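Tokens in:
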């Protein structure tokens, strides 16, 4: 009796589906390569789509062999989760929503079911109802694949949003070179923990890149400061000091000053100035630069 005929008479339906997927991986991959989910992602070469199809078929075979057809956390899925994430992300970038991606994954089922039916129909002595059981196991397995794809698509979408949010934070946190050895970060808008962390990282990178001796944090445009943000600012000042730069905080408005006092935060070790201009004048003075002030009469004073 041929080996695959013996398979039809023993083992669970899930295991038999696993053996079928392993045996027919090439035919499955060839059929999947023409489906939208693969064809639209691997546009350079059909061979790439076929190879991706083989990888997914192998993963499904492993999941089925382990009899975990309904488990999205099965080890087999781990092997292709990254690839599925790239495919889902590619379809998302093309403007497809999760419902459309779900339909494209569903479209992978009919070609495989047709192969399974043809495969088992040609075998002798197939136990009654075995074809239906195997078809059911395969349907559940591909349904789990759809769930894995959608989960990875959502994760990729969240990761993309996080990356874009970080990029926006970086754009909204510019570092300006005011003078040789002096950089400034003018902050506008609400400061939260995430943005405060970006401020620290951006400022420290600028201190290194510009070999700055003075770094000015101007918070004139910041409406409120809570205890967590104030602590982040203190940490930024301390970190800049460790990098060899003195950090000056400017633009502390009356409301923020009252908040800092109310919170009991000690800024005694932090150099503060009323405005960005005052902070720049302080830094220039410390650098030994001559500062010339224009007077109303047109004369100049130092």
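Residues out:
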């Amino acid at each position: 009796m041929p080996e695959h005929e013996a398979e039809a008479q023993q083992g669970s339906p899930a295991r038999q589906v696993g053996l079928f997927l392993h045996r027919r991986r090439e035919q499955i991959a060839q059929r999947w390569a023409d489906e939208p989910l693969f064809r639209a992602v691997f546009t350079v070469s059909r061979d790439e789509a076929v190879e991706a199809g083989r990888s997914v078929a192998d993963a499904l075979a492993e999941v089925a062999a382990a009899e975990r057809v309904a488990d999205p956390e099965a080890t087999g899925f781990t092997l292709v989760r990254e690839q599925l994430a790239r495919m889902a992300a590619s379809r998302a970038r093309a403007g497809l929503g999760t419902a459309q991606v779900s339909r494209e994954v569903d479209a992978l089922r009919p070609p495989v079911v047709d192969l399974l039916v043809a495969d088992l129909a040609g075998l002798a002595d197939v136990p009654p109802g075995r074809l239906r059981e195997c078809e059911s196991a395969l349907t559940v397995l591909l349904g789990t694949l759809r769930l894995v794809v959608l989960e990875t698509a959502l994760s990729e979408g969240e990761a993309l949003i996080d990356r874009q949010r970080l990029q926006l934070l970086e754009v909204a946190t510019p570092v300006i070179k005011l003078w040789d050895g002096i950089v400034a970060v003018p902050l506008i808008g609400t400061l939260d923990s995430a943005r405060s962390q970006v401020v620290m990282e951006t400022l420290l990178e600028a201190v290194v890149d510009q070999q700055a001796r003075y770094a000015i944090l101007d918070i004139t445009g910041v409406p409120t400061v809570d205890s967590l943000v104030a602590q982040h600012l203190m940490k930024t000042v301390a970190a800049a000091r460790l990098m060899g730069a003195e950090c000056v905080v400017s633009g502390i408005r009356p409301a923020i000053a009252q908040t800092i006092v109310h919170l009991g935060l000690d800024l005694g070790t932090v150099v503060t100035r009323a405005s960005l201009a005052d902070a720049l004048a302080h830094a220039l003075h410390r650098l030994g630069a001559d500062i010339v002030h224009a007077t109303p009469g047109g004369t100049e004073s130092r």
